[in-house]
Amino acid sequence: MYLINRDKNRIEKLExxxxxxxxxxxxxxxxxxxxxxxxxFGEDLLVIxxxxxxFDDTKERLDLLALDKQGDLVIIENKxxxxxxxxxxxxxxxxxFCSGLSKENIRKIYQQYLDKADPGVHAEEKLSEFYENSxxxxxxxxxxxxxxxxxxxxxxxxxxxxxxLWLMNYKLRIQCFRxxxxxxxxQLFLNVEQIIPTKDAEDYMIGIAEKVQDDLETQTELKxxxxxxxxxxxxxxxxxxxxxxxxxxxxxxxxNWLGAGSGVRGISLNFGISKTYGRVEVYIDRGDKAENExxxxxxxxxxxxxEQNFGGALIWERLETxxxxxxxxxxxxxxxIKENWEEVIEFMTDSxxxxxxxxxxxxxxxxxxLKSHA
Length: 374
Fold this sequence. Notes:
- The chain is an alpha+beta fold.
- The protein contains ten helices and 14 strands.
- Strands 3, 4, 5, 6, 7, 8 and 9 form a seven-stranded mixed β-sheet that branches.
- It holds the Pfam family DUF4268.
- GO terms for molecular function: nucleic acid binding.
- This is DUF4268 domain-containing protein.
């Protein structure tokens, strides 16, 4: 690896180092780096546990357990300077153990991790956020034999790479990443390189075949939720149309939210439902995090006045780790229990009418400012 020196129009070679010589350790350092920055593998991963040992009748511990955007479990085994001979077998054992984890198992595992890493945060909410605010009940996690393996080390022994390449012929999804530390003066650099499969080859590889049949119980439950939601939205829109024209051109859907425009691009007035709440919200997502936060901050500066006009307290969520921001009001009710519908629909429609009256004037002012600065 080389450093570009613009002033001299030259390149300067960085000194390749060994982790142990630099005083770095596998668990304390490399594992922590990956856990806090899993995007080093070139994709969005959600780490749900470290040093996981929740396997029946064994004291085995896998280094990191993560989820990818497809809902598949990713087993991450990291070695420091050398893989050793047994890392492939070790990872395969962990993948086989993890293949039996249900969605509820995964939620509990992640909650245990959050209780230590981020107390007070709920696994269901974080999972929903990771999957683009999908309803947790709709998520399908660890479906069939879709588990993946990622091996990380500075040096890979031939017996490891040979075994990995052979296993890939049987459509096991395994990746090997070489991590190399470099030094220049008092600065240290880390290079992360995918060596198996090579990136170019990976683009042309055939993905793993899914099971012929989906889990019947999961699919039946999902279909049932879609039917319930569409029926709920139909009733809510009918009732809403007696109070406001905001949703008169919106059709019922099978999803857990409905949105109407606020008059400002990227800002919508949404309904949201789940097994735990009925929600109305101002949802801010103009495609730029800084701009979203600036609009949120302008609104938050008028919090007292806005809540007075709304007629009650609102929940203000800047969503620091996400691009969007949200201002909401909720009722704690299970929408999938029809006996709750009358109360929930009354709350949501009344709240949406107030939300529109409260926020449309100030959003119009903000919109004028945005246009004048465009």
